[in-house]
Specification:
17 strands, eight-stranded mixed β-sheet, 356 residues, alpha/beta, five-stranded mixed β-sheet, globular, pyruvate-formate lyase- activating enzyme, 12 helices
Length: 356
């Protein structure tokens, strides 16, 4: 797909392109839905190779001579299917439930927890039975009334990076706009938000951007939108009236970290309109890893500069039954204090939901 050339100083920078898969699989049932047919037409129009598969679990023999080559190709592989399980996972503390629109991500963030949770199947899956998924969400809302029910749409994927293929976020935003007791939220590392700007959302969808110091994005988040792209996209979302939030994660201790995180907050303050602050939220997450994740990361990104030295970390018991390694208390507190102070200096009325 062609990409625009944007003017930038001191030189022109190519815009981060929309995701175009190199190989597409369709589960037969997906073609019984209008969304499945639209994606098939999109694939055919671009001459992309595609195959049929009875189930994503039966996909084998991806191209590539080594495991690393197969992993890279899998991240550029799209599986179009039907979400059979309409029992939603919980998503505390972010929301009551996860809204299953997609699974897997085309980004190559070295530290991502999907490295381990998706295991040997890191391809991108999208679900075309959106009406059934949203009807299930309606039932969950009904069960919990008169309480508000929140749904997180980015637990296992980055749906903004797939919206040009699926339109499913737009469907979910429109649905939730009409739910007095329903709320939608999702987080993204992509700036391709234009399809969302003109939608009627009724303030019921909170869009959050995963942001970081420029150093972290440049070294550890390949195949995602860049620092400036995300900040400008956040400004567009704020001007479209959506409740806005930021996840600064993972917060990484590196040479010049104070300058990097200070610059991040300064750029956000310069970009956002004043009205964005009224409902602005921040979530702060320090870098952590498990031994399982470390082994996977070192295999898939053998040249990574990501620091994962257990000897200089604090061991902490994780909720999923294994130890994770976080920064020692003095470093964690220095990160928390510095970034918190910069947030409130730039946005006095913002709410910091947590630091972990």
């Amino acid at each position: 797909m062609d990409t625009d050339i944007k003017a930038s100083s001191p030189r022109a920078v190519r815009e981060t392109a929309l995701f175009v898969p190199e190989l597409v699989y369709f589960e037969p049932a997906a073609l019984d839905y209008p969304k499945g047919q639209r994606i098939l037409n999109w694939v055919r129009e671009r001459g992309l190779p595609y195959r049929m598969t009875s189930s994503h679990n039966r996909i084998t023999g991806l191209p590539g001579e080594t495991e690393l080559e197969q992993y890279k190709i899998a991240k550029r592989t799209l599986v179009v299917g039907v979400r059979k399980t309409l029992k939603f996972d919980t998503s505390k503390p972010s929301a009551e439930y996860a809204l299953p629109l997609s699974t897997g991500c085309m980004g190559h963030c070295h530290y991502c927890y999907l490295q381990t949770t998706l295991g040997a199947k890191p391809y991108v899956r999208v679900y075309v039975n959106i009406e059934e998924i949203l009807e299930a969400a309606r039932r969950y809302i009904e069960e919990r009334k008169p309480d508000i029910t929140r749904f997180e749409a980015a637990c296992t994927s980055d749906p903004v990076g797939l919206e040009h293929l699926t339109g499913s976020l737009g469907d979910a935003i429109a649905f939730m706009a009409d739910q007095p007791l329903g709320r939608l939220r999702f987080v993204t590392k992509y700036h391709h938000v234009d399809p969302l700007l003109g939608l009627r959302h009724n303030g019921h969808t909170r869009i959050r951007f995963s942001v970081n110091a420029e150093y972290v994005i440049r070294h550890f988040e390949p195949a995602t939108s860049r620092f400036e792209e995300r900040i400008k996209a956040a400004g567009r979302i704020a001007r479209a009236g959506y409740p806005l939030g930021f996840i600064i994660a993972p917060i990484i201790w590196h040479d010049g970290w104070q300058q990097g995180y200070a610059e991040l907050l300064e750029r956000l303050a310069a970009e956002l309109p004043p009205e964005a602050e009224e409902h602005l939220t921040f979530e702060l997450i320090q870098h952590r890893f498990t031994k399982t994740a470390k082994a996977t990361i070192e295999k898939r990104y053998p040249k990574t500069k990501l620091e994962m030295d257990e000897a200089v970390r604090k061991k902490k018991w994780g909720r999923w039954g294994q130890h994770k390694y976080v920064y020692p208390d003095e470093k964690a507190e220095a990160l928390r204090k510095f970034i918190t102070e910069r947030i409130f200096a730039a946005f006095p009325s913002a709410r910091i939901e947590y630091f972990t």
